[in-house]
Predict the structure.
Amino acid sequence: MNVLEVLLHPDRDEDVDRAGVVHAANLLEVGEFQLLQLAFDEWYGREMYDSEKELFFHHVFLEKSTPSFLRQYARKIVLKHNRGELRSRARGYHRYDPEVFACSVPSGAFHFLGVATLLIGMLFGSLVVANHTVERVGSCTDPLPPCLTEQDLGDFHGKKMSPR
């Protein structure tokens, strides 16, 4: 692959097995190493030891070779997705990243009310600060722009007018 192709299609890989692994990881919204851990657990029925993690990391990501159990697991995920049976948010797929489920996303109405309250609070806060500034300086006639002084406005009866 040349550099331009990689920039235009970063998810495309020349190795078909590797592309399947990347696609399966994207479908589950997990990293490729986490997919490797899930595949290992399903194939061997246990978690990887630390020494195995280092060995497989080197083997899969640095030497670019795909073990058969990882290839098989990735195909299984893609097939589930194609049949519409894949539930990518299931806890079993995200057991190595529990922070996915730790935060709760507010509902749409709650989120809207929070943002609206924040904006209204900022508006009134800025008006209070502007009013305090006008009272302190004493030259502007109104806290909102434009800042016009009595000299700018002149006399309303036509007696005194500003030179402008």
Observations:
- Residues 108-153 form one domain.
- The radius of gyration is 32 Å.
- Residues 108-137 form the longest helix (30 residues).
- The chain has a mean pLDDT of 78.
